[in-house]
Fold this sequence. Notes:
The protein is elongated and about 150 Å long. The chain has four domains: 68-187, Alpha-Beta Complex (Topoisomerase II, domain 5), CATH 3.90.199.10; 272-351, Gyrase A, domain 2, CATH 3.30.1360.40; 377-505, Topoisomerase, domain 3 (Orthogonal Bundle), CATH 1.10.268.10; 527-835, Neuraminidase (6 Propeller), CATH 2.120.10.90. Strand 18 (530-536) and strand 19 form a beta hairpin. Helix content is 28%, strand content 25%.
Amino acid sequence: MADNIDNDNVQGNDRNTPEDELPFDIQPTDTGEKIVPILIEDEMKKSFMDYAMSVIVSRALPDAKDGLKPVHRRILYAMKEAGISYDKAYKKSARVVGDVLGKYHPHGDTAVYDSLVRMVQDFSLRYPFIDGQGNFGSIDGDAAAAMRYTEVRMDKICDEMLADIEKETVPTRPNYDGSLQEPVVLPAKLPSLLINGSTGIAVGMATNMAPHNLTEVINATLMMIDNPEVSIPQLMTAIKGPDFPTGGVILGSHGIKEAYETGRGRVQVRAVAEIEEMKKDKFRIVVSELPYQVNKAKLVEDIAGLVREKKVTGVSDLRDESDRDGIRVVVELSRGTNANVVLNQLYKHTQMQTTFGIINLALVDDVPRELNLKQILRIYLEHRIDVIQKRTRFLLKKAEDRAHILKGLKIALDHLDEVISLIRSSANVDEAREGLISKFGLDEIQAKAILDMRLQKLTGLERQKIDDEYEELLRQIADYMEIIASDEKKYGIIREELADLKDRFGDERRTAIRSSIDELETEDLIPEEDMVVTITNSGYIKRLPVDTYSQQHRGGKGVIGMDTKEEDFVVDIFVASTHDYIMFFTNQGRVHWRKVYEIPEGSRQSRGKAIVNLLELGEGELVTAMIPVSEFKEDEFLFMATSMGTVKKSQLSDFSNPRKKGIIAISLADEDELVNVALTDGSRDVVMVSMHGKAIRFHESEVRVMGRSARGVRGMNLESGDMVVSLDVVDETASLLTVTENGFGKRTQFDEYRAMHRGGRGVITIVTSLRNGPVINVKAVHDEDDIMLTSSEGIIIRIPVKDVRVQGRNTQGVRIMNVRSSDKVVGVARIRTDEKQM
């Protein structure tokens, strides 16, 4: 209800409703006052606006001048008043909280203590204002001990927030009950709003200001003093960006620039993590810095949850080894796991990478405003100018008052005998004072000072001290008046004060700033290099650098390329760049793809990792072909061959977006399987080779382009018991390498294979005798290339192609790899000239 409101101002649904039609009766009270009804929505609107403004101005938002909210300001002022400074003994936190509650902040003690605790925590404030003794919580989210157990005193840097407050430098106002005065703002020699930031949620608005490095902020402030028209990009040469107390890495400067120019921006912050090698082929990720305001214990718990849910694989152990020396979270990886891939998964799925939304909202003369960087610095400078002006006026008045007294003392000393005689002849103090005033032209203050003067002042030395002090005061008064009249002098004082602050409290940045990434791409952390990818018949896969295998001569025994279990043997090897896509074609006619770097890197002796951890394969589904692809072009094609002689050609671009469980590459007949896939440009000849040593060459134009789900057409007519083992693209500058399972092979020029129509039986490419065994693979190779052969027992040999003799089609070839009677060749890979890593 509200008093003294005219009836004409009562607003209902119809603003012109006559008084006698109002739904309320307006009756005078016993005292003659009228009770005027008000619509509840109007009263709620008014009351809530009052509440909202109270929250905004008196609770949630910092003042742009000193960067503090009321509760923080009151805590620091109460500690100053109680003399709990950095050079005094610690006092119980409960004592400080009691003073703040009783004198200035009549709210809950929890609110005050929580605010005090935050000003102690070095992981919350970049430059803590309070020095604490006891348990004040941790970065793991542990709560502080009760206030009766902890002790506090002001930190040394906090003195700079309250310096000169006793010199009438800031306005004051009555406290909540009018019994005391409290400062509206603090003198704040430090640019607190920037160096420590602020976080608060008001009604309908919020602030989230990032902390900054003191040295950088001071350098920018000095830059603005020297050039008031300095631009924000120029200021950013001094202030690189936020500097969080917990360190971390800021990705990119776009969000920083946006925040500094508009008052709002978003910055991505990453944890600092290093990959350390524990032993050969086994690594660990060590996290040493976290993004600001990230709870370490919850982060560790989240990582463990991802491992349990198999969203992150390859983690063998997870430990928090943090101590008083710093943060150390260790993520140990199982052998053969790609540490870079795991690290990027952690960045993507956990708070090891967060977004800090900057909102530079603060009170300017009790009005909330979003401020850019230049405005924040300008408000700080204007506040300091005002503080220096008031401080100088205070000192001037004090100096003038003292000089006035000294002037009277000097008069008395110059007429000492007369003054002593006058005092001795006076009946009382009042008479003596009046006599001094009338005889020597003094005022009451000077006369009182003369009467209070001690006899020791009459000595020659003391008289000289008075003369010297008077001269010094006259010089100070002149300086003070000069400062008051000159902004340049004031800025000079600010410059000196800031330089002193930088020398005493400045430090190095903790948060690094690196180039931005629009999307988290693992390639940014992985060098581009060629890798040998191997896969076994039982589904183990790994990658190794090409130069792991030293070059040997024809007929060598090779080196151990993989430890295999019984009945586990390598079925394919391939060379591809770490940044390439690998398309995995399965025997069931489906295709999956992964980046090469997603395949775990192993050693020569390691078995690798089960491919089911990389691909979602169906029951009985095995990978039979792998194709490296840099990008999915429309003018390139995939040419497929099945074991029953079917071929199919599809556009590569049709396969650019496989689903999680793979997509159909070719529809197969019963008992048929996809055996190989080649990448072509649509104008090439292809050659298919069967297990019994038959080969057919035809132009790929004989096969029309088909959709992904098509069955294909007949490419080769097979004899009973025969099956297609491989397919390759004809290269007239190369030769066709044919390899049998007993380690024999040869090269044959492509011109010995005449072009036919698809669907024929083909011609002999090698004699598949008892000595040779059946054909296991063919490759188009150049003289400068190398080839790698792998056996079912995991032996791998790498030899130059030129060591393999060129022979006609109808021959048995020569020994390429010396395999034992229990062993057989199962895989062949070529290493082109531009793929060699010697």
